[in-house]
Amino acid sequence: MRGGQVGVPLGHGPGGRCAQRVPAPVGQLGVHVRLLLLASALPMAMTLPRYTKLSLFRSSTARGSPSSPDSSTRTPPGRFRDMAIDPRHPHESFLGFWREYHLCTLTTPRPDGTPHVVAVGVTYDPEGGGTGIARVITNKRSRKVANVLAAGPEGAAVAVCQVDKGRWATLEGRATVRTDPEVVADAVARYAERYGRTPSPNPDRVVIEIALTRAMGRA
């Protein structure tokens, strides 16, 4: 090339060519334009945020905007939801869960309305009383008995619950206190059948009998 001329590259990469004999001012202008374009793109490339979509099944990366929810990441309808159960006609696995050895909780309302929760043994009889019955044997001087009696003759709204890893079950209903010897003896026999031991004789033993109104769980 002669003085006052420059070569201006055309295109990028190994296949790019160079235009020969372009007047120096024109060639320099082209070089400056290219440099300005590169300079203006650099901050954008450096500051452009990256968003990562996390999934149990796969992950993907998008530039410039957050990933929108994908159908593969949504919980399928019906999975991991509470299940309402008829306490008089429970399905086999639910009833079997109540036949296994599990400690339970009994929740009763204190006179001030706050919940009182204790560990108990529970037996479940879906055919009892026409509504299904849950029974808890206890001492007549216990706080849970006092809470039930304080609710009056209609009984207290209570719940018994048991949990085993991902399985759980709750029975709700109206509790009353039964002191009849035959009722107590029947409740003790049911307790022994479920828990594999017969409680020691106790003249102060009574039964908290729960007429069931609702059952729910996942078992």
From TrEMBL:
Gene3D superfamilies: Electron Transport, Fmn-binding Protein, Chain A. The keyword Translocase does not apply. Keywords: Oxidoreductase. InterPro entries: F420H2_bilvrd_red/Heme_oxyg (IPR052019), Pyridox_Oxase_N (IPR011576), Split_barrel_FMN-bd (IPR012349). Residues 96-214 form the Pyridoxamine 5'-phosphate oxidase N-terminal domain. The lineage of its organism: Bacteria, Bacillati, Actinomycetota, Actinomycetes, Kitasatosporales. The keyword Nucleotide-binding does not apply. GO terms for cellular component: cytosol. This is Nitrilase. It comes from Streptomyces tirandamycinicus. Residues 59-78 have a biased composition (Low complexity).
